[in-house]
C-alpha cells in the first residue's frame, strides 16, 4: 500500500531534506550520517519499512 498524493511532490527535495534532518528513530542523528555506518543502510531500510507498515518500535 502506498500513501500520499504524488501530484506536485518533489521526491528528490523530500529525500535531501529527510537525509539532513536529525531524527529520533536514529538517536537524533541524521540519516545521512547513519548511512556511513557499517549497518547503516540496513538500519534505515528497517526503519522505513516499519514506518510504511505503521508499526513503530
Explain briefly what this protein structure is.
This protein has 57 residues and is mainly alpha-helical. The protein is built from three helices and no strands.
Structural features, described:
The chain has 57 residues and is mainly α.
Q: What are the defining features of this structure?
A:
57 residues; mainly alpha; 3 helices
Instruction: Indicate the low-confidence ranges by residue numbers.
Output: none
Mean pLDDT, rounded to whole units? 89
Determine Rg (CA atoms, Å). 12 Å
Beta strand count: 0
Strand content: under 5%
- Order of secondary-structure elements: HHH
Shape category = globular
The secondary structure category is mainly alpha
Instruction: Kindly report how far apart the N and C termini lie.
Output: 20 Å
Q: What share of the residues lie within helices?
A: 40-55%
Tally of contiguous helical segments: 3
Largest sheet: none
List the helices and strands and how they pair.
Elements: H1 11-20, H2 31-34, H3 40-53
Amino acid at each position: 500500500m502506498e500513501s500520499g498524493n504524488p501530484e506536485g511532490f518533489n521526491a528528490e527535495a523530500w529525500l535531501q531534506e529527510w537525509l539532513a534532518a536529525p531524527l529520533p528513530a536514529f538517536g537524533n542523528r541524521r540519516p545521512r550520517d547513519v548511512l556511513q555506518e557499517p549497518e547503516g543502510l540496513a538500519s534505515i531500510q528497517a526503519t522505513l519499512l516499519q514506518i510504511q507498515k505503521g508499526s513503530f518500535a
